[in-house]
Amino acid sequence: MLEVLRIYTNSPLRNFSYLVREPETGKTLSIDPFDPDQISEILESKSWNLDYILNTHEHHDHTSGNEGLFQKYGCEVLAHPGGMNKIPHAKRALLEKERLLENQSGSSYLEVLYTPGHTFAHICLLQMENGTPVSVFTGDTIFNSGVGNCTRGGDPSTLYETVLKEFQTLPGSVRLYPGHDYMKNNLRFSLSIDPKNEAASKALAKVEGLKDDVEFWTTNFSEERTFNPFFLIFDPKENLISGIRNKSGSPTLPSDPKTLFISLRSLRDKW
Length: 271
Fold this sequence. Notes:
alpha/beta; Metallo-beta-lactamase, Chain A; 22% strand; metal-binding; RibonucZ/Hydroxyglut_hydro
């Protein structure tokens, strides 16, 4: 099974970076490296080399570690084809459904997902173990109780289609590894739309009980589907529909999932 290390960066945008290692070969991948010194220190403490960098997309807070790590390790930088001219040292464009860090038996690997919406050159990685998806690295596509904004080269309609295609049908047991820790604020937004959502209230209490910037809740999709409004829109309850209509000032807003999703994303942009 792949070994996963989540690294909280203490950055202003509360970024997460990740290290993923395939134990049979020792090959190691850095996802969205932010601070090269922080990552190097962890690699050295474990006596690991760094073979690959993958940037989920081209925004600077997801690529700022590329230069330092490339200079130190000479690692291969992997990216979406649309990010090749935007991401520092990008060398290899990844194919959709391509496998990374695959073990010799083919039972363990990361699968490349094309996930446009936050930007049009966005990739997520699905961890597969023995034919079963167990976790997904979502960059700025899916957050705890939220989704990415579309204000810097994206499109909310496209993001909706990505969420519907790639994430709505994932098994509930799949763990979520997002690119930022926005959980408290996102849950507060969720409750501003639907104050009667008990799952969101309980989730916020749980997160507020964790040690700031040290402890983090790794949710799965079953949990997210109880309090993340961008998933609740696929089977919306009346409280959520009314909340979106009231907050958007559109009492006759249609209640189909796509319209609700786009309206929610607009409300979150202004919140």
